[in-house]
Amino acid sequence: MRRLYLQFYLTIVAALAIGVIAVGLVWRSAILSRVDNTMEAVAAFAATELPPSSASPALIRAALARAHARLRADLALYDAAGALLAQAGHPPPLLPGRPAAGFVPGAGGPAFVLHLDDGRWLATRLPRAPRRPGAWLVMMLGAVAIAVAAGAFPVARRLTRRLERLKAGVERLGRGDLSARVEVEGRDEVAALAESFNAAAARIEELMRTHKMLLANCSHELRTPLARIGMALSLAPSRIGPAERAHLKADVAELDHLIDEILLASRLDAVGAPQRSEEIDLLALAAEEGARFDAPVHGRPVYVRGEAALLRRMIRNLVENARRHGGDAVPDIEVGVSGDAGAFIEVRDRGPGVAADVRERVFEPFFRLPGAPETGRGSGLGLALVRQIARAHGGEAECLASESGGRFRVMLAAIAPSY
Description:
Elements: H1 4-48, H2 57-71, E1 74-78, E2 84-88, E3 102-104, E4 111-115, E5 121-125, H3 132-174, H4 189-235, H5 242-271, E6 278-281, H6 282-292, E7 297-299, E8 303-306, H7 308-325, E9 332-338, E10 342-348, H8 382-392, E11 396-399, E12 407-415
Parallel strand pairs: 7-9
Antiparallel strand pairs: 1-2, 1-5, 3-4, 4-5, 6-8, 8-12, 9-10, 10-12, 11-12
Helix pairs in contact: 1-3, 3-4, 4-5, 5-8, 6-7, 7-8
């Protein structure tokens, strides 16, 4: 990606270069036009005003002097052998022999040689003084271009550096850092944009803080009435049958589980990274959770760094989801290494599977598969927590295609054990 400040700066430099070139071309065109006009006048002088070779030297010098005053050019007349007959103005360069007609290089600038019909030849050279303003003009334009280019760079760089800081703030906010703010510099449109971003970020942070506080407080306050309901069930009279009592206790346990997962989701939102970090054998952790459901676990030992309680909860949610949607079949758990430094845990069930268009949506909180029966089992946050925990550990959770049922994989960063 091309940097914005370079685009600004190069645009200014290119405009200056085009201006200098344009002025130089105009000046060159003016010089060439003057040269052409002078050569035409010299040719007319030689044809109509220059005395013949039989005229006296004084008459010839007088004619050259008049032409020099009128044309402001150095003139020298030579005979056929190359001997100087007369001159006006600065002495032209010594031209050996009889040079060819046209421009001939020499000290002080090129001379224009014109051959006459009587064998003589006339050398004409424009004086150097008229050319000096052109050189000074080019030097002046070059100095102006260098000064503007040097002054434009910090201005363009300062403007785009502010945009880069604003971009970094937006990226921080997009990564979940709700405290991201950018410094407001200046009083222009970029400063106004920075103020708008800061105001929006502050509003988002306040809304999220209020939402998390409300969620946490509601979840905490629900614990007390649930505890009282559970106590009342235990002390309820015998007219409540065992089946009804069991159903009520299951409902209370389901609500308690939902509150627990809501509190965990809120904590992960607020904290992000695990609060404790240690080396964990992912295969051993999966084997412990698999034993709770008589689910086979196979693979190879692989170590990751993270919080064991969270990773255990992640695996448990995956297995419970597989048991819930896999019918009577026992889910299959595999742990291994993928790539150079990636650990994975994969849980497969024998259920109906997940359609391709909803494989991402299953990780949304409280999402239900289209056509799925309303069983009342599950909190609706299990897979959402799986992805939250995976991302908190620098990994990712995904639902993969499978011909035999549901297939969920969690990728984590593998480490070498310290022992």
